[in-house]
Amino acid sequence: MTLDRAAGLAETARALAAGDVTSRALVERTLARIEAAQDSVNAFRIVRAEAALAEADAADRELAAGGRKPLLGVPVAVKDDMDVAGEPTAFGCCGEFPPVAEDGEAVRRLRAAGAVIVGKTNTCEFGQWPFTEGPAFGATRNPWSTDHTPGGSSGGSAAAVAAGLVPAALGSDGAGSVRIPAAWTHLIGIKPQRGRISTWPRGESFQGITVNGTLARTVADAALLLDAASGNHAQDPHRPPAVDVSGAVGRDPGRLRIALSLKPPFTAVPARLLPEVRTRVVELAERLAASGHWVEEADPPYGQIGLTFVPRATAGIAERVGEAPFPALLDRRTRDAARLGRLLGGAPLRAARRAEAVLHRRIGGFFTSYDVVLAPTTAAPPPRIGALLELSGFATDRAMIAACPYAWPWNVLGWPGINVPAGFTPDGLPVGAQLLGPANSEPLLVQVAAQLEAELRWHEKWPEPAVTARSAAA
Prior knowledge:
Layout: H1 9-17, H2 23-37, E1 44-47, H3 49-64, E2 75-79, H4 105-112, E3 116-121, E4 133-134, E5 138-139, H5 155-162, E6 168-173, H6 179-185, E7 188-191, E8 211-216, H7 219-229, E9 257-260, H8 275-290, E10 294-297, H9 306-323, H10 332-344, H11 347-366, E11 372-376, H12 393-403, H13 409-413, E12 417-424, E13 430-436, H14 442-456, H15 469-472
Parallel strand pairs: 2-3, 9-10, 9-11
Antiparallel strand pairs: 1-3, 4-5, 6-8, 7-8, 7-12, 11-13, 12-13
């Protein structure tokens, strides 16, 4: 049996368990696809060719002995902000970084589930921006249009999955950094409840706004990777109750009250939902209504939630810059954000952290009237490569907020959200929509996403013009 690039995570795991294919053969083909696509897509910062093949051989021995694990022998990728033992964690920065001694908790759990880590994917510097470019590695490109960014900051993971290089990948989401690239590359992107997937060795990443999440072509695959990576280190400060996300896939959610929220939350600069994105999101709302859900326009009571985001985000940047081995090589915008973070790192940061409980009560009250929020993931389709790279800090912030004003409030709240593909602009660029819920609502959100997927079959559409990875597909 030959598995092509369309084989998903679950299908690959089943084929391995049945003995229809070996892990070594799969990893060899994966490495060939990565190599073939690196010039055109540039998804990977590090490719672990020798180590991954050794891990595949070990998985094959375990499979032959009757071992069974959820992802035994399956090749996956992780973002370059995650520690993989023996590899550097540069997080998009320039310079030569030393290899780390131990896996981060999320990577450790993927290995415990049997996954083979084939490499670390590109991300912008410290994950700050919705594009994946920089002097450390060049530009990561969107498989749907290599003139455009796949988004960020988990753009390398999204590009790798969208191009069919790996069936699924881990990313991280601090202001939409899983959901935005998922939207712009036609993928499922799950931002789980804070603490669902550990960020250890950092108990909190970016003052608690950043969580690890999953990218895949189907809801079932994104849920499977989420369940495999979920769990906590003994010292994690956030330990949500366990949920079975994979078990929710395909389960009827019943008739839900869905709020269609098209108004951007408060921002200090203008943000406008572009008509080509609005049309696609409204079409999804109509599809949900046709499925029997009660859908009406309503916006969560965000208030001035942005005032609580900025101190946490910039203080997190200041922490990272303070640890950076090569601060002189950092982007000027990074250094400026760190200076602001040091200014806001006292009383403003403490006030921002205290405000979270107030926001939980106020926005949580919205979920007494509604079960799920449907909102755009972004206000615009993906920009062209280079459009934001050389801007000033202020101009970058303006452009970023204009394109991506919808995702970050759920990072402040720490609650789950899922990007689902919403279709394409008239120019053929992917756009997405978010399903958002209250604390620990991943199973419900997955049920709704899977219901849409069963009707729309978005995973059957692949990027054309073809990525060079296709020539390497066996």
